[in-house]
Structures are given as C-alpha cells and as structure tokens.
Amino acid sequence: MRVAAFSIKPYDRESLTAASAGLPLAWEWFEPRLDRETARLAEGARAVNCFVNDTLDAATLERLARLGVGLVTLRCAGFNQVDLGAAARLGLAVTRVPEYSPHAVAEHAVGLMLMLDRRLHKAYNRVREGNFSLEGLLGFDLHGRTAGVVGTGRIGRRVAEILLGFGCRVLAHDPRPDDGLEARGVVFTPLDELFARSDIVTLHCPLTTATRHLVDGRAVALMKPGVMLINTSRGGLIDTRAVIDALKRGRIGHLGLDVYEEEADLFFADHSGSIIQDDTFSRLLTFPNVVVTAHQAFFTKDALDAIASQTVRNLVNFQRGAALEAEVRA
C-alpha cells in the first residue's frame, strides 16, 4: 500500500522506515506541509501521514478523498488541525498517537520551569563569555510552591507526579478528576481558583473551540503577580498579545513556551539566515524572562519510535480491514 507522508524530516523517515521494515508499505516522502495545494502529491496513495502543522481542512480532505485516500494517520496526539466533520462525511478514517511518550513532554515542561526559575539559559551564556557573576540569577525553591496543572491526561498526570516529587503543592483542573492523583494529594479545583492560587501554571489540555485562548487577559488578571506560565500543549491555548502585555507590566514573571499559536510558518525549519517577519513572535524573544523552544517537547528517540510503531500498526490494520487504534471521530 502506498503511503504519502508530509512534513517529513530525516528523523521521521528513519523511524518510520525502521518500524515498517519487511511490511507491504510503500512510502512517498514529502517535506512540504499538507494542504489543499500539496494534496495532489498524494495521488495513488491509500493513506497519508501528517504532523501538527499540516492543514486538513474540508478542502484538503475533499481533494484527498477524490484521489482515493481512505486513511489519515497523524504523527501526534493533537487533532485540532483536522476537520473531523468533513472526514466523517467523506468516509475518511483519522487516527492519532495519544500515548507515544507522556514522559517526554512532561519532562520538557518541568525542564522549562527549572530553566526559568534558575535562569539556566542566562547562566550558560554568561559562563561561556567568562562572566561568573551571580547578579540577576537569583531563583526560588520549587519545594513548597503551588503548581497548577491544567489538564490531567497522560501528560498532565505525569507533570503532577514530578512536581509532587519536588515537594510542590499541586492543584489541577480537568473535566474528569483523576482519583489516583487525588489520593496522592493533588487538589482538583475550578479553573479560576487554580489561576488565582498557583505560583506556576502549566497547560496540558487539547486545543478546541472551548480552550482556544484559555489564557487571555481575564485569566492573567486572576493570576498571582509574577506567576510562571508554561505551555507545551498547543500554541492557541494562549492569547499571545495578552501575555506580552502581562510580561511588559510584570504580571507574568516567567514564560516558557514550546508551542506558539502562529508557529506553522516558523517551527521545524532553519530561519537563521533570514529576518523573522512575525513581529509578535519577535517581541516575545526580547524578554529576558521568556524561554521558547521550537516544539521539541516530544522529541526523544523513545517517542519517535513509539509514534512510528503505532502509525505503522494502523496502516497495516487499515490495509487488512482490521480495527484501528486511537481512531478520532467527530
């Protein structure tokens, strides 16, 4: 079966090739993102494989369906980039990879907390320049601080567990409270209360119409002055302009981002030889208390292997007419 894979990087190709060795899958690798224009590249394929910044709106899906595609496999947990209603109408199955490695993303989120708290990014650059002064590097103990975890799915649960290990008081918000976390001392609260009581707020929920700009000007106004805000989920959870205003006023004391709401034209590519045209993103980079990584929280060998393994299982199951894993429906 021919599979058209989009937004492919060398590491994707390596992991997918290894996972499908000896199986009847014929890969076609495409570096461009999938959208209504590049969908033509999938001609002759029965399945497509996509990533977070591919565009699977109704127009793209309609073109894929006309070309004979029957399966969309996502190399990610999120599926906000897919028009699921259109997929159902067109008879296209959609699968994702929800369990590739919650540890990878959770550990990265906590890594951002430590980097911001202890100014590790600034300390690293200083020492390389021969500056061993400690001025401006004063941090605080995570032990005893209150951390608010928004979303306690597989990743959020792991973040809460790690923060408990640091000795934090952990608050959480989720439509379905986790009994196991409650038994360990995590307190589930309404979202506004979590914002108001937390020294650290970390986001681990999907991007939906209900959660878009979950952190906006109103939410920031509820938070403690100097709060640390972490987002390793989806960029659209944060109203970036409202957060920049809060940074300017000192309302947000630390900001750690692995995602950005307009990242599609920036992330996963080398722009070091050009001028970034996104003024909002450029403004973010001017703050000394902001750390941005380029959607790399998932990026461990363990996670890539797990993503490739489940993706290949779904492709083979589809080919055989068997049940699909982690199928997403409208």
Explain what the structure shows:
By secondary structure, the chain is an alpha/beta fold. The chain folds into 2 domains: 2-100 and 301-320, NAD(P)-binding Rossmann-like Domain (Rossmann fold, 3-Layer(aba) Sandwich), CATH 3.40.50; 102-292, 3-Layer(aba) Sandwich (Rossmann fold). It has 12 helices and 12 strands. It has helices at residues 10-19, 58-66, 84-90, 102-117, 120-128, 154-165, 179-183, 191-197, 217-222, 240-248, 279-284, 301-320, and strands at 2-5, 26-29, 47-50, 71-74, 93-95, 146-150, 169-173, 187-188, 200-203, 227-231, 252-257, 290-292. Strands 8-7-6-9-10-11-12 form a 7-stranded parallel β-sheet, with helices on both faces. Strands 2-1-3-4-5 form a 5-stranded parallel β-sheet, with helices on both faces. Helix 1 crosses helix 12 (301-320), helix 2 (58-66) packs parallel to helix 3 and helix 4 crosses helix 6. The radius of gyration is 21 Å and the shape is globular. The two termini are 26 Å apart. The model has no long low-confidence stretch (mean pLDDT 96).
